[in-house]
# Entry
Amino acid sequence: MIRLPRNLLLLAAALPLAAFAAPESYTIDPTHTYPNFSVSHLGFSTMHGRFDNTTGKLTLDRAAKTGSVDISIATASINTGLQKRDDHLRGPDFFNTAEFPKMTYQSTAVKFKGDAVDTVEGKLTLMGITKPVTLTVTAFKCGDNPMSKKPMCGADATAHIKRSDFGMKYGLPGLGDELKLSFEVEAIKD
Amino acid sequence: MEVWLAHPAIQSGIAPFLAALVVAELLVRLRLSGLCVIAGLAATVYLVADFNFTSLSSSKKIILATLLGAGIAPLLDLLTTWQPGLQKPLRTLIAALCGGVALWVFWPVLKQQEMQASLTHGAAAFTFIAWLYYWMDSLSATSVRAGAAGFSLGIASGLSALLGASALLGQLGLAAGSACGAYLLIQLLSGKALPGGKTFILPVVLLCGLIAPAAWLLAKMPWECLLLLAMIPLAARLPIAQNAPLRVQVVTQSVLALLPGAGAVAWAWHIGGSPV
# Structure
């Protein structure tokens, strides 16, 4: 009978655990990922809009309760349902998309509550200015997509920013300074 | 008071007009009335934006370049008074430098474009402002013509930018127009020409010569407006009766200079329609 060294047996036993603990990489599904925003319109009502084109990567290590988020949003894909308003929002008064075509969010810490992601701390870069922004995750689920059977994760998250912090000062104070950002994110495992 | 100061008509009309009126009158003995343009711009920037240049977007660069131009221009006037022979070579050199400023301002946009688009847009912005400076500087000895051209350039580039979906650029252009209006009004009321020179010309050209391509490249102003705006200094050169009273010259020259400007605004309106 061949006798395996004890260390080798221990290593073999630990391998499946190590595979489970490895960070999993996910790619954002742009057809199910939309950053939405809402802002006060002259104090009368709240205007909503969204960005139609988002790309990015997520990594999650659910055993170690760590992860990362790296999202890039095409600012020219802004959509409020009215072409003329969208043209204005793309211009230098607001998002200045010709000069700053991307808005990016890179996490610095992903915090878990139990098995689910609770908050994401990171840096939002908009119009060349980078500021810390914390995303509060209100829903989080990982599992197999019932249609495609592919493993995936999804989340809803919200954050509040002041547009003036990013140099977007046109129309203040009538057009609200505070923007509520809400993200619906789905990502498919690589 | 805050409601008043937040009104666009105050921000880009009345405030720059009053600031320019005061500066043009106060500095007349120092022959620095041309600084009225920068006073008007400063009033509008104070009310609609700020003087924070830590993050240099194209709009911030336009303001910064105009402020720096206003600082240098009186020295250039001194130089050409001391050495009149330098007037023509300096005109060509400054026109080329203005073109260089345009490339600096729009570089973040140009570098993201395809090579052909980048070259076309860069060349157009360079040529537009260099052309404007060259021909505006040829008016610098006649403050009525220069004032009329500046008035039309400011109003037309401002309104065209506004119709091209940029209120901020529009307000800056209109501020230049209001300031030039104050400069003309003093001449109209007093019947006496104000000192101008490069102190007046350079800030006007830097501001309006950068606002118009910015409204084209960053917003939706149609490119044809640049061609019409470029005609303004030529319209201000059209001959009128030299022996006519100064007041008549102010009115006639302003109407002539406004014609291509009105064409630019009409075209921007035709293509883009009214703002949101």
User: Anything to note?
Assistant: The longest helix of chain B spans residues 246-272. The interface with chain A takes residues 6, 48-50, 55, 57-59, 108-109, 112, 164-169, 214, 217-220, 273, 275-276 of chain B (CB under 8 Å). Chain B has a mean pLDDT of 93. The two ends of chain B are 26 Å apart (CA to CA).
